[in-house]
Amino acid sequence: MRWLDRLVGVLSVACFGLSAALVCLNVFYRYVVLGFLRKAGRDSEWIGTVYDWSDALLSPLTATADELPGLLLVWITFLGAYLAMRRSGHISFDLLVEKLPAPAGRIARSGVAATVIAFLGMVVFEGIRMIRVSGRTEIETAEIAQGWFMAAVPLAAGLMLAASVVALVRAWRASGRAL
Predict the structure, then answer these.
(1) Rounded to whole angstroms, how far apart are CA atoms 159 and 122?
(2) Residue 44 and residue 118 in one domain
(3) Per-residue DSSP letters for 95-109?
(4) For 74-92, how does the pLDDT look when each residue is reduced to its tens digit (9 = 90+)?
(5) Residues 103 and 129 in one domain
(6) Is the pTM of this model over 0.70?
(7) Are the beta carbons of 32 and 53 closer than 8 angstroms?
(8) Which residues contact 168 (CB under 8 A, 6 or more apart)?
């Protein structure tokens, strides 16, 4: 599963990089093009030409640049949740479990893992259902279906479900018990 972790990490970084680039584009457009160039273009013909060209080029992109970073944050969040799960980075309250005898602790951890697996299975199912119901609706600023962003939910939940099952099986095998 290490190759999958690397792939998810690369995809997360790509989403973050694209989101950051879009935010920078939007800031550049608002402050440089709409702020400085528009004002300076009133006094200078060639700066006015640069403003007109920049505005015509960037204006259609900036509406999308407002919306896409927020939608990419969904991917960043859910892929990051998978990576955190793989590295045991989620918050856990195991004080009570640590005080239990080994067999009872193993049963408690297995119960928690089974609950997490059941929950993630439900998230996968409901995420797919959500995409079927409204995934074809386009975002407001571009002709991109919302389903592309909604897909992060069932995909990441499926990855976390698989990681949870693998971790549970490994834990039981390490404890000397076969499933």
Answers:
(1) 13
(2) no
(3) HHHHHS-HHHHHHHH
(4) 999 999 999 999 988 777 7
(5) yes
(6) yes
(7) no
(8) 110, 113, 114, 117
Provide the pLDDT confidence category of residue 177 given band limits of 50, 70 and 90.
Answer: low
Q: Are residues 68 and 100 in the same domain?
A: no
Amino acid (1-letter code) at residue 80: G
Q: What is the 3-state secondary structure (H, E, C) of 107-158?
A: HHHHHHHHHHHHHHHHHHHHHHHHHHHHCCCECCCCCCECHHHHCHHHHHHH
The confidence band for 72, taking pLDDT boundaries of 50, 70 and 90, is very high
CA separation for the pair 54, 36 (Å, rounded): 12
Cβ of 106: how many Cβ atoms within 10 Å?
Answer: 16
Q: Which residue has the tokens 């976390």?
A: 160
Lookup: tokens for 84: 């955190």
Which tokens in the block code for residue 164?
Answer: 């949870």
Average pLDDT in the 133-140 region? 90
Query: Residue 147 is part of which domain span?
Result: 92-179
Residues in the chain: 179
The answer to whether 41 touches 119, Cβ cutoff 8 Å, is no
Q: Are 124 and 161 in contact (CB under 8 A)?
A: yes
What confidence score (pLDDT) does residue 166 get?
Answer: 92
For the segment 103-119, the average pLDDT, to the nearest whole number, is 91
Structure tokens of 102? 């080994």
What value does the CA radius of gyration of the chain take, rounded to a whole number of Å? 24
Residues 57 and 79 in one domain: yes
